[in-house]
Every structure is written in C-alpha cells, then in structure tokens.
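Technical annex, item 7. During the second reporting period the consortium partners agreed on a shared format for inverse folding records so that results from different sites could be compared directly. Each record opens with the tokenized structure and is followed by the designed sequence. A conforming record, contributed by the partner at site C, is shown below for reference.
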C-alpha cells in the first residue's frame, strides 16, 4: 500500500515545485536506488551525479524515496538504477526511459509525487515490434485516432483544498481492440464504488499509455482499485491479481498531485505458437531448387490457417566463402549485413524477362527439383540467370528511386561487400591475407575499387543489383507477414567466418589467432569447434559496440523477433587456439585462470608434467598395437626412457592431420585415417592443465580432466587439489565476471532495435545466465530431451516458466520422429514415464505419439511453442514415408555437415491439406494460445477441455497402441 504522507515535512522554495520520487524495490545489503535523468538537476545521464533515494519500510515493502526542487514547467526523462556505495551501476531498468512532465495546474510551492514501479525486462516485451507492429497491430493502428492532442485540462479548485489531492491514474495497455475502453474502478465513489457504469474512464495518451485524473478527498482514502476493459458488447474484463491500494496520510503534509504510474495492466499472460523451418528447406512450385524469400508469403498463409503467430528461420546472410557446398553452413557469414543470393527469385527480377530466359528458368527449376538442396547447382544457376537479366535491366534499376534510396541507406556495408566479392573471385580465394596490397582494408583502396570509372565496375554493380533485389523481395515478404499478424523471427549467429568482409574491414574487432566453439555437451561429447575467430570485446566497447548495433538495426528491417545464437557467448565464449580442429582443449574467455602462484600454494610444482601431453610407451602399444613403433618414429620423440612428446612439426591438431595425410599417401600406415587421427588427438589432449599461450604463468583445467590417464596417474594429493580447482574454475570463480560481461553487451543489443529477443541457452549453463536473462527480459529455450533441471531425463513442459520458447526438437538435433527411433530403451522410458502407458511403445513415432508430444508443449505456460515443420508433418501418416533420419537439418558433431534438407511437400500442397491444418489449429486453439484471425469457417472446431483432453489422449494413445492399430488424422 502506498502511504504518501511521510515525505513532506520540509519547507519549500517560493519559486519552485517540489517533485518527489517513490518506488518500491527490495535491495541487498550495500545497494541503493538512484534516479538519474536528462536534466542537470538529475545528473544529465551521469549516474554518479544522480539523486540517491532513501529507504523506508511500509508493511512488507521497502520504499525508496527522495525529493528535489524544480522550476515550474519542468520536463525531463529519467530512469532508476540499483547502485553500490560508490554509485557504480549494478542494475538498470529495462525498456524506454520515463518521461516526466509537471501536470497542469501545479503551482509554485506545491508538490508532485511520482509513484513508480520498477520496469523489469519482461514489462517491455509487449512494446517490442513483434507485439506492437504485428500481433497487436490493430490496436496500435488506433494511435492516431486515440491520441490526446491537447493536455488534460487542470481540475479546478481541489489544489486549494488542504483535504484533497489530484490523482493521475496511468496504465500501459498495448492490446486494446477497436471499440474497447479502459476504466479504473475502485472503492471510492469517484471510481464508481466497483460499478463499471460509474467508473473513471481513461483516455489514450499515445504509446499504449492510458490515463485519467480525479480529485479525491480525505474521506476517499485509503483507496482500493483495479483497471479493467469494456468492449463493444459491454463485456467487462478486470485485471488479474489483488487490488491496488493508495493511502494518503492527511495528518501530515501531503502532495497536492500524485501520478500513479502503475506499469502494465495485469492480464492473463499472452501465449502463442509458431513454426520453424530453414529458408533453404522450404519447397514451393515456383522455387528454383531451394526456398526463396517470396516463398515466405505462402508459408505465412499456411501459418495463419494453422493458428501460428510466428515463422522462425535460420540465418539468411551470405555465406559464399568457399564457392562450394561448404557454404551451405548458414552460421558462417561472409557478411553479417548482406543477404544470401541463394534465396533470390530470379523470375521476379524483371517484369519483361525474355522468353528464352523464362524457358531457361523453367528447365533449371525442373533439373534442381530434387530430394535435397543442390547448393552449388542452385547458386551457379541463379547467378548465371541473374547476370543475363542484369545486363538488360541494370540501367533502369540503377536509375530508379527505390534503388537509389537502398544504396544511400546501405552503402556503408554494401561497398565493402561488393569489393570483397570482386576480390574473392579475382584472387580465387576469400582468404584476404592472400590478396597482396588489398590484404589490408582502407577507405581509399575501397573507393578506387568501387569507382564507377573502374573497368570492373560492372561486376561491382552486379553485387549491388543482387542485394537490392534480395532486399526488395525479403521486404515484401516481411511486410506481408506483419499485415497477416505473423511474426518473422530471424537468427543472429554468434560468429563470422574468419575469411569474411567483417574481418577484412574491422580486423581489430576479432582475435584472429583463436577459434570459437563449445565445450563437451549434449550435442558433442568432444566439444565443438566452429572455426570463427573470437571477439575482441575490449576493442568493441570503445564505440559502444557499434558493429553489433548496426547488425541489429539491419536485421530489424526484416524481422520483428530474433534468436540470439549461443547466448552463453555473451557471458563467456569457449576459446580454442586457431590450430585446433576439435573443441576439447579450450578455455573460457573471459575467465580467471589458475595462477602458478595459486598452484604452488596448493603444493603443485611440476607444471610441465601437468601441461605437457602425457605419453608413455604402454599407451602407444594399447592404441596402435603393432604399428606403435611406426607412429612413434613418425610423430613423436622419446625425450627420456618411456616418455614421449610430439615432434615440433606435428605438435598441434592441424599439424597432426596434415602429417597423417602425408603418411597415408606414402602407405606407411594401414589403419583408417579417422581412427589414427582420433588416437593421436587423444594423446595430444592427454593433459591436466592448459598453459595460457599469452601468459606462461596462467593455466586452465582441461575439460573433463578426470577422464585422462594424465590425471589418473597423479598422486592422491594432486588429484584432490585438481578436482577442487576444476570445480572452482568451471562452476564458481567466474560467475560475477560473466554476469558483468553479459550486462555490458546484451543490453546494447536489445536496445539497438525493438525486435523481440530470444536466447538459445542450451549446453553447460552457468548459474548467472538465467537470472541475467530474466532481468533483461530475454526469452529462453527449452527442448524436452535436454532438460535444464538436474536429475531429469525429460523436461516437463507443464513446469516451464513463462519466459521461454519450447519445442520438441531443433535444427541442431534429430527430429521428433528420428529421436523416437534412435534408442529403444530411452523410447520405453519416455513412453512409461511421460505418456503414462504400460504397454510397449511402437518402433515408429506414429501420428498419435506426435500429437501427444505436441500437445504437451502447446499446453505449457511458455510464451511460445515453436515447432519444426518436420515435427508437425509427423501428425499425418502420409508425410512420414520418408526415412526419419533424412529430416535432420544439422549434425553438430560434423563440422563439414552439408546443410541441404528440403521438405518433401510443397507449401501449396500443405495449404490445400485441410485435414492437417484442422488438426494443428485444434491443438493451438484448445491450448488457449492466441492465433491470428482467419476467414476459414471450416476451421471453427469444437474445442475439448484441456484437462479432460490430456487424460483422454493418454488413454487413447495407450489403448490404440496396445491393439497395434494404425491411426491417421
């Protein structure tokens, strides 16, 4: 309950207005609340000069308050901060800055109380573009109609009455349908005494804020109140939760004007569903061998019919580094700004394509209409056809207003991209270190390369032309999705290719002697090495992460939501030496290492023994059998009896791989290359500590060090010390640093656009990650087979938190059908413990199994349920004839995986499949999730109750499978 009579005992200036801040917030010891704003009196955004508030207890609440004198007519922006005793920021409010404007009628010498609530990260979500510009689009289109064009008229007389106070009620309500009104009802007669017909009606003040003022007297207090909606049909919906309360103590000096900023209207949490599919995997009747941006319009139509508010894609940036199928990897960007030419619809390049080119397009479409994507074939064909159209259309396009606007807005990245593509093709490599005098980027060299007077400008112009049309086609699809109420969700890769435009133009932003990856986890027990250079965060911070901000600004032109790939990388990244091929022997960056002094204090002295590969003759004999002497003579030196080390020319993983290939070519060794390489790598990785290459007195515990013979041959004291230090390094000493690191970078990303941000938080999760994500309003990811909770084999969707996206599978693992078929024992445990059936499970993931799993997810509390299209197709027997393993998009254990999965049915066919659409929409509607409006009366289904449906479905699944009946939808 707000008690507003405690702050006004001091005398005020005769030429100013007293403004008081008041906010409830529980802090920890050593923390305090500070308010800082745009005006000098509030520190001019210098937190060190902000106003520190004072705490007081009111019942169960800790209230922070403070006052200052301001001139009449004062305006300012402001925010609250949690700071330490030195005024260092520990936590900031999320969302936009607050705006303070003194109410009309307030006179010099009077006081205004600003009653605020802390803006948490989740409070800002309804104002993100996914909701504001898409899902709640109809509401927000009323902004112009409902905006208060002139200030509220001051309420007469009450400000002169010592026993009265003017209260301004302010509430944020972004989802308001046309014809709906907002009211505040409460215990006072001024608030209708809980009757809607006499309640106080609020006016729309813009940006989804609704407000009204009322003059209340001493007898009205204490007030209990709530906000509510009343639609065209006079249907009333009152906000959830307990009553709000306001108390003014008239026995002391009290404010004459109270502004109650009550945050968001408390409504049932919004929940929606979506479909996920890589851009390249979409199949349509018009595409040329691969999904194209304009196919998204058809996919959006299908999403609307199926009840989905969201379509999620993998990254769509250009990856043309190698000029071959390796470039199918969508997370290895050639440019973080350029779109991929693969997704171009060549038929849409011109309205006057010649007949012979049309016939060529048709022939090519038929040739490339295969089971999987032919990456090299599709790229070559599209670029060849596009060049022919370009030769005819280029002058018309370059003279158009649309192109000139595009070029003007994008030239900062477009020129370097086009120049890079030209040099890549000229030197026949993307390795810019091989480009002679062009190896080092400069603006002068760039301007000469892209000059219209240069002999190769036609080639430069072609890359401009392709990017312009990609932009136009994706923009068309993006706006179509917005108009249909469908969120288009993109993907922000954690890395860039080391031979990319970005590393060429901004080399200081990357640590080029390192590689990015992930430690051993669910996806790969040996860890992952993605090959990207790690970031130089210190250098990036100097311009407030401009490179990242520009990336997000560019993404927001097309997407209204995005997935942050490997969000753990913004806390810490798994950094490997550039000469590594696997992901096992890395370290976290940043991290606090084990110092030589620390190890010596623990009684560990032999650092060569701990950090040098531990290789003994017996190990060689066990691994290589009769060939061990050949291996030893080829790769190792015996530095003392029975003790071996790798030769200088093969003492890294890359060197070993190269030397091994040479030995096999000479037929020295008879075993398989893969087996020999794995065994040699095992020897190289047989260490307890990894010495820092930049500081010889700093060390890092090798991941899973207890699995090594190097560790197991140590004495017991050394083992005990290393186990304790291992746990400390990986699970304790880094938490504060990693939290601070994330709070430097992630807010910059999130504030660079108004897209809805989701974080892929799978893998080994530090304990600081989820609190930071919650604080910032970042939505996490939950995959049932990869539970975050210790001791669980399968996640429990009904227990997921609201701030999550859930899914039964994702692109980095097998599909639901393939997962079901992979492991018989696991399948049996799932069937017994999750489905609740005592009979033996079917060998195949039948449609009723898929329905059960999807229903579990869609009925969860998660904000979003986003299903891979393959898992949705498992709902119908007709679509499950293809072997399940062929539907897998990526194999994380294979760094050279070919990303080429194509859906085996066209989107046009799915649009005609009323049966499948009906089943999917029934799942969405029965779960209580929101769905976009559809004019299809055929889909008005009878929706069973959720709880009864769960029980009936489990019994239905078990009984049908017990009878071994085949069920189709």
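Designed sequence (site C submission):
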């Amino acid at each position: 309950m707000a008690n507003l009579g405690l702050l006004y005992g001091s005398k005020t200036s005769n030429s100013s207005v007293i403004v008081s801040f008041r906010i409830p917030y529980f802090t920890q010891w050593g923390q305090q609340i500070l308010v800082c704003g745009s005006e000098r009196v509030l520190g001019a955004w210098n937190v060190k000069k902000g106003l520190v508030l004072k705490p007081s207890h009111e019942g169960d609440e800790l209230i922070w308050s403070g006052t200052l004198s301001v001139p009449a007519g004062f305006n300012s922006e402001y925010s609250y901060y949690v700071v330490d005793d030195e005024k260092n920021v520990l936590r900031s409010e999320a969302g936009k800055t607050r705006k303070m404007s003194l109410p009309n009628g307030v006179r010099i010498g009077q006081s205004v109380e600003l009653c605020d609530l802390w803006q948490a990260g989740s409070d800002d979500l309804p104002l993100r573009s996914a909701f504001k510009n898409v899902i709640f689009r109809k509401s927000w289109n009323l902004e112009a109609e409902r905006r208060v064009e002139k200030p509220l008229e001051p309420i007469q007389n009450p400000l002169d009455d010592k026993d009265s106070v003017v209260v301004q009620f302010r509430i944020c309500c972004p989802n308001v349908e046309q014809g709906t009104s907002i009211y505040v009802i409460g215990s006072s007669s001024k608030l209708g005494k809980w009757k809607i017909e006499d309640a106080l009606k609020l006016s729309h003040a813009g940006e989804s804020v609704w407000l009204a003022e009322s003059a209340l007297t001493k007898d009205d207090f204490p007030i209990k109140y709530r906000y509510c909606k009343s639609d065209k049909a006079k249907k009333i919906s009152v906000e959830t939760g307990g009553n709000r309360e306001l108390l003014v103590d008239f026995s002391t000096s009290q404010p004459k004007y109270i502004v109650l900023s009550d945050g968001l209207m408390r409504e049932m949490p919004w929940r929606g569903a979506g479909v996920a599919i890589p851009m390249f995997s979409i199949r349509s009747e018009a595409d040329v061998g691969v999904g194209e941006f304009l196919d998204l319009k058809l996919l959006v139509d299908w999403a609307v019919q199926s009840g989905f508010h969201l379509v999620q894609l993998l990254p769509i940036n250009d990856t043309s580094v190698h000029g071959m199928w390796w470039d199918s990897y969508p997370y290895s960007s050639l440019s973080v700004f350029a779109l991929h030419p693969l997704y171009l619809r060549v038929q849409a390049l011109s309205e006057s394509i010649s007949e012979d080119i049309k016939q060529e397009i048709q022939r090519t479409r038929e040739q490339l209409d295969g089971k999987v994507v032919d990456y090299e074939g599709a790229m070559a064909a599209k670029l060849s056809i596009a060049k022919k159209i370009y030769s005819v259309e280029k002058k018309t396009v370059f003279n158009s207003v649309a192109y000139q606007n595009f070029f003007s807005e994008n030239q900062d990245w477009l020129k370097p991209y086009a120049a890079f593509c030209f040099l890549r093709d000229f030197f026949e490599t993307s390795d810019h270190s091989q480009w002679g005098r062009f190896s080092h980027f400069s603006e002068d060299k760039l301007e000469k390369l892209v000059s219209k007077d240069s002999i190769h400008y036609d080639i430069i112009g072609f890359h401009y032309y392709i990017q312009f049309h990609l932009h136009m086609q994706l923009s068309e699809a993006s706006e179509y999705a917005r108009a249909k109420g469908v969120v288009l969700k993109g993907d922000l890769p954690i890395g860039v290719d080391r031979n990319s435009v970005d590393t060429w133009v901004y080399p200081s932003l990357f640590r080029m002697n390192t590689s990015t990856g992930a430690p051993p986890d669910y996806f790969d027990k040996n860890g992952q090495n993605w090959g990207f250079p790690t970031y130089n965060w210190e250098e990036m911070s100097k311009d407030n992460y401009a490179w990242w901000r520009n990336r997000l600004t560019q993404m927001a032109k097309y997407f209204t939501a995005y997935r942050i790939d490997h969000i753990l990388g913004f806390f810490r990244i798994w950094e490997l030496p550039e000469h590594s091929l696997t992901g096992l022997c890395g370290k976290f960056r940043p991290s606090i290492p084990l110092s030589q002094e620390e190890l010596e204090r623990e009684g560990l002295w032999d650092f060569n023994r701990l950090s040098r590969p531990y290789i003994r003759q017996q190990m060689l004999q066990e691994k290589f059998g009769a060939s061990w002497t050949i291996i030893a003579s080829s790769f190792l030196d015996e530095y003392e009896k029975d003790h071996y080390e790798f030769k200088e020319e093969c003492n890294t993983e890359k060197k070993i791989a190269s030397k091994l290939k040479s030995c096999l070519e000479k037929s020295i060794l008879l075993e398989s290359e893969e087996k020999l390489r794995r065994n040699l790598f095992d020897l190289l990785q047989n260490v307890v500590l990894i010495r820092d290459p930049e500081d010889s007195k700093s060390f890092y515990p090798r991941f899973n060090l207890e699995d090594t013979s190097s560790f197991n041959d140590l004495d017991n004291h050394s083992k005990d010390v290393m186990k304790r230090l291992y746990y400390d390094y990986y699970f304790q000493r880094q938490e504060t640093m990693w939290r601070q690191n994330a709070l430097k970078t992630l807010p910059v990303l999130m504030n660079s656009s108004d897209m809805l941000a989701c974080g892929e938080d799978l893998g080994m999760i530090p304990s600081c990650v989820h609190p930071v994500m919650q604080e910032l309003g970042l939505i996490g990811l939950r995959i049932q087979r990869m539970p975050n909770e210790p001791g669980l084999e399968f996640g429990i969707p009904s227990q997921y938190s609201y701030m999550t996206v859930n899914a039964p599978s994702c692109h980095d693992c097998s599909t639901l059908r393939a997962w079901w078929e992979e492991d018989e024992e696991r399948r049996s445990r799932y069937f017994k413990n999750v489905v609740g059936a005592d009979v033996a499970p079917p060998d195949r993931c039948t449609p009723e199994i898929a329905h059960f799993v999807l229903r579990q997810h869609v009925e969860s509390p998660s904000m979003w349920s986003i299903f891979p299209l393959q898992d949705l197709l498992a709902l119908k027997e007709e679509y499950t004839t293809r072997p399940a393993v062929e539907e897998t998009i990526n194999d994380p254990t294979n760094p050279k995986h070919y990303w080429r999965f194509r859906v085996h049915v066209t989107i046009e066919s799915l649009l005609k499949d009323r049966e499948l659409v009906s089943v999917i929409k029934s799942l969405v509607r029965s779960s209580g999730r929101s769905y976009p409006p559809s004019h299809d009366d055929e889909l008005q289904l009878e929706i069973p109750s959720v709880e009864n449906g769960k029980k009936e479905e489990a019994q239905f699944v078990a009984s049908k499978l017990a009878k071994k009946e085949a069920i189709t939808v």
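The mean pLDDT is 91. The chain has 29 helices and 39 strands. All partners now use this format for quarterly exchanges.
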